[in-house]
Target: Ferredoxin
Amino acid sequence: MKLKVMVDQDLCTACALCYDDVPEVYEDAGDGIAKVKDEVGGDGAILDCEEVGQDLCDRVLEVTEECPSGSLITEVVEE
Ligand code: SF4
Model:
């Protein structure tokens, strides 16, 4: 599976859930607003779950569901 990971920063309410739960992928951009880490490729990065581990991909999908403002956008680009 491959996931495309994005954050809509205009909607983010800086609740910190995503970067607390999945710090490998998300971080605080400086004002509490989330961003996809540059280390993983920044906004729109593709995560190859075989490389990064299915557990990490599962946690990305989970936190995408849990984000209270719907700011996390995660697309399955390859099953
Ligand atoms: S979980 Fe959603 S609202 Fe909370 S910091 Fe992350 S993107 Fe923003």
The mean pLDDT is 97.
